[in-house]
Design goal:
The protein is an alpha/beta fold. It contains five helices and five strands. Helix content is about 40%, strand content about 20%. The termini are far apart.
């Protein structure tokens, strides 16, 4: 696997998702990359913070903006293990993030179902990178919840 490939960075996001899993959070992980450097790492914290807005992407946007000292992330790429929801896609719009790469599709709550215009028109979108790994972790989590 090439360093600086989408697969490499998605593996980093998957490590964040595992942290969420270990905390009994829905296992979604996100990282933000600028100039081939990871500038933000995050995972879902909705249960821990008792906050529905504490999605991995939202945590990552804040961290990256703080790191850069700039609210615009147009030179950055977000890697997230699940297709962003409408809220996270809307926040991506305002950050003007340059690119979003997601792992698994979210056929229930993902922004691509009827909300494709949620992201900025200059934001590039790539999907299904390490989809099987992302889906497996999410499936394991919900299977464990049902037991």
């Amino acid at each position: 696997m090439d360093v600086f490939s989408d697969e490499y960075f998605m593996k980093q996001a998957l490590m964040e998702a595992q942290k969420a899993f270990d905390k009994d959070e829905v296992p979604i992980g996100a990282i933000i990359v600028s100039n081939n450097t990871i500038i933000a790492r995050a995972h879902n914290l909705t249960e821990q913070l008792n906050d529905f807005t504490a999605h991995a992407e939202m945590q990552a946007y804040t961290s990256a903006s703080n790191y850069l000292g700039n609210k615009y992330l147009d030179e950055c790429t977000l890697y997230v293990t699940l297709e962003p929801c409408v809220m996270c896609a809307g926040a991506a719009y305002w950050t003007r993030i340059g690119r979003i790469v997601y792992g698994a599709r979210d056929l229930k709550r993902g922004f691509l179902i009827g909300h494709k215009n949620s992201i900025h028109n200059k934001t590039k979108l790539s999907g299904r990178v390490l989809e099987a790994e992302s889906s497996k972790l999410i499936s394991q989590f919900f299977k464990q919840k049902r037991e």
